[in-house]
Amino acid sequence: MTKYLFVLTSSPKDFFCEQTLVAIASLRVHNPGAFVTLLTDDKTAATLTGKRAALKDAVDEFVALELDEKFTPMLRSRYLKTVMRNVIDGDFLYMDSDIAIVGDLSIPEEWKGGIYAVLDFHVKLHQAINRKKILRNAKMMGFSPILNDEIFNGGVMYAADTPEARKFFETWHELWLYCVSKNFPYDMASLAETNFKFGYITKKMPGEWNCQLAYGKKYIPNGKVFHFFGSRIIDTCGRKVPESMNVFLPKILRKSFYTDLKEIPVTVNADKTISINEYYDDVIAHAKDEFLYQTKHAGEFGADIIRSYAFAKSLGYVYKKLPFVLPLLSLIGKIL
Length: 336
Known about the structure:
By secondary structure, the chain is α/β, with parallel strands linked by helices. It starts with a strand and ends with a helix. The protein is about 40% helix and about 15% strand.
């Protein structure tokens, strides 16, 4: 049996708990009967009360680790991610929470026994827009220059429960701790270096398994996991969003979709499926349709622009500082 694993570090002040609940709800829509594990830390676990307790009810296995109380939320999150293979038993498919599961995640037989992930940005390193930054970070840490021209996105990872995989994650954790000691708390450089030390054993998943929306347009029609990244979630500043804005801002990318969920009762059914209300249940079940809608109405080139980080950042700025531009965007949305 493969477990579907999520890692959570959260407090009532953020919306990561609600984001994880939405991700799990989408998983259960398309993968009924999936065994879901939540790995968290002691501080986060203590906050999963009241409405937030629904998240604990929604999973099949709940594991909380006691961590150094001085760790920041970011350090707690990376700590859990780099040790997850050695504290969770059984094969697992790990997924970040800034995702929507939109397809069947049955694990292919040929993956069994291995470690799999999708290339970052869906391209070889020499084609990546952040290539210079990645290589500079590797050099700064004294790491390999990534000789195989591949760097993997850690947002979705399959890891079999084998001695080699456990040693891989043990090394990743040690290298991450080394990075932390150098005031570089990020986990991708240490993941790449671990892959180098293990002879590049990480194998490539098809892009559909971690469709990074800003860069993976060809994977959207048959996508299984849509990874939209937290940076693409836009704060609409309490402003009403007309239907014509759906082409620019799918509902699942609105910050209010998660923050409003804090006050909405959530029902976890006997079969672990999650019911919220008609609006939420529909958005979660049809997340793929929202992104197909963008392509249909804006075209492939237009949809690429709309899904870019630059557009998301600009749209967020408009909502915050230039609301008078919104009627024009709404009109364009109607025309599209």
